[in-house]
Design brief:
The protein is α/β, with parallel strands linked by helices and about 500 residues long. It has 17 helices and 24 strands.
């Protein structure tokens, strides 16, 4: 029966030092239901799911699964129950191969010798990945060499091999192109038809309305409402989530475009991209996108660290860069926000304050000694400007929600007053109000004369912010759009390798 509750979480409370993260939360999931869980960053969604995953222990309340009271939950118990998580942070072991990661714990072995049948596993991994999630990956490839999107599809496929009863998707489409997201939605709908229950967490409310049967809205750790999605609008969800109406103002693009700041010439990285040419001028926002595996994310990192470049060069402010690395890039005035925020963007065991001032210590120091009062004032200003939700500056950044960690990463580079910002998926997994704040910050740094390379799968974001848009396909830049003649539909056609006279502009 559709009304049968697979999962019930009743009066769940959780408190961290100085923060009431969850207050008497109620959440119920029906069999074969796709249930959306929405709220601003810091509203309590991740905390509630970490309790369900057995990572956190709730202070009070009870959890029932298939009618049975679960007094203790651990990750191992949760997996045995049939609850699986597709995490926002994509928890995978980078040094395993695709096959080893997919079949971890369920390996195919030679009975007599307890040795892995590696070749069989690799072939089976390739077959299963294509059949279940539609991705072509070599079973021999190291997980650490996969893109964030590929790691996510690997996680989904692994969950599907283990007879799941509930799957939790945490921001699953944050870094996926539309075609790849549509493929994921088809997978989710198939799971629903098989009676598997889905908890779907996303800030893309169009997706929520398209695929979810019901939603539960959290605000500041409190239940606001659980309701059917039928008849709801995006504006309704935003209002429930924030308690206010968010304006739909688009940041002005009118700004002075100056001299060439970055010149990329014949840039080539073996098997990722080749013969890439483009420029970014002072005060200009250049967007770049493509399908997963097209090379557009690798391109941004390679400008910042060109250790694996096999041909071509980068000029920055008229000077050719040879053997560039992150340390040199920062010294030159480049800032880079990585796609993998958790592993590459923050120092997890350091405080919010230490993370924010990491790239600008000289501005708060004298004679090599940090001026603590000045540092605190600077961080207070940035926290207020970006609306970072944290108990205080000393809080370990790992305790912040994913969206607030994202804002802290952005704050770190904004405090450095860089000349060039390379922003890889800067608004992935952040809420609607935070996204508006980030858009305004990006346009402001460009207005102040910095160049911006905006790397994103969000096509509306590209059209909203960019002066020019580059589209990559199979490692090459295949189209360039000027801001006045770009639409999301035209960009999508180019991402898939199509040509359209109306969609292309000359590459000068």
């Amino acid at each position: 029966m559709i009304d049968e509750y697979v999962l019930e979480m009743k009066e769940i409370q959780k408190e961290f030092p100085g923060v009431k993260a969850l207050q008497n939360i109620h959440f119920q999931l029906r069999k074969g239901e796709i249930h959306g869980l929405v709220g601003e960053n810091g509203a309590g969604k991740s905390t509630l799911m970490k309790i369900l995953a057995g990572i956190y222990t709730h202070d009070s309340g009870e959890i029932q699964f298939l009618g049975n009271l679960q007094k203790v939950l651990t990750p191992k118990i949760v997996e045995k129950l049939g609850i699986h998580f597709i995490h926002q942070e994509r928890h995978v072991v980078p040094y395993l191969t695709v096959a080893e990661s997919l079949f971890l714990g369920i390996e195919n072995k030679f009975a007599s010798f307890n040795l892995l049948k590696r070749r069989t596993m690799e072939k089976e991994a390739e077959k299963v990945l294509f059949e279940k999630v539609g991705v072509n990956l070599s079973g021999k490839k190291l997980v650490g060499d996969l893109s964030v999107g590929e790691k996510q599809l690997l996680q989904i496929c692994r969950a599907l091999l283990q007879d799941p009863k509930v799957i939790v998707f945490d921001e699953p489409t944050a870094v996926l192109a539309k075609r790849e997201a549509d493929q994921l939605f088809n997978i989710i709908k198939e799971l629903k038809n098989k009676g598997i229950s889905i908890i779907y967490i996303s800030h893309y409310f169009g997706e929520i309305l398209d695929i979810c049967n019901r939603i539960t809205v959290l605000r500041n750790g409190i239940n606001v409402k659980t309701t059917e999605t039928k008849g709801l609008t995006i504006e309704d969800i935003v209002y429930l989530m924030t308690g206010r109406r968010i304006g739909n103002e688009i940041p002005t693009k009118a700004r002075h475009i100056g001299d060439v700041l970055l010149n990329v010439k014949d840039f080539t990285q073996s098997q990722q991209f080749h013969d890439v040419n483009f420029q970014i001028r002072k005060g200009e926002i250049v967007g770049i996108t493509g399908l997963m595996g097209s090379g557009y994310t690798d391109l941004g990192m390679s400008i910042y660290d060109n250790s694996r470049i096999t041909n071509g060069f980068v000029e920055f402010e008229g000077k050719r860069l040879t053997k560039n690395n992150p340390e040199n890039a920062v010294a030159l005035g480049m800032g880079y926000i990585p796609e993998d925020r958790r592993n590459l963007g923050i120092l997890q065991n350091m405080s919010v304050r230490e993370n924010i001032t990491l790239t600008s210590l000289k501005s708060v120091s004298k004679g090599g000694v940090i001026k603590r009062k000045l540092e605190r004032e600077k961080v207070d200003s940035i926290i207020d400007k970006l609306g970072i939700r944290t108990p205080n500056q000393k809080t370990t950044i790992n305790y912040l929600s994913g969206g607030n960690q994202q804002k802290a990463v952005l704050a770190k580079w904004l405090s450095s007053n860089a000349s060039l910002y390379i922003l890889n998926q800067p608004t992935a997994a952040v809420d609607v109000s935070t996204k508006a704040e980030i858009y305004n910050l990006i346009t402001q740094v460009a207005k102040n004369g910095a160049g911006v390379l905006l790397i994103t799968q969000d096509l509306q974001e590209l059209v909203t912010l960019s002066d020019r848009i580059l589209v990559m396909y199979r490692g090459k830049v295949v189209r360039e759009f000027e801001r006045d003649n770009a639409t999301t539909d035209q960009i999508m056609v180019s991402m898939m390798g199509g040509s359209n006279d109306e969609s292309s502009s000359s590459n000068n």
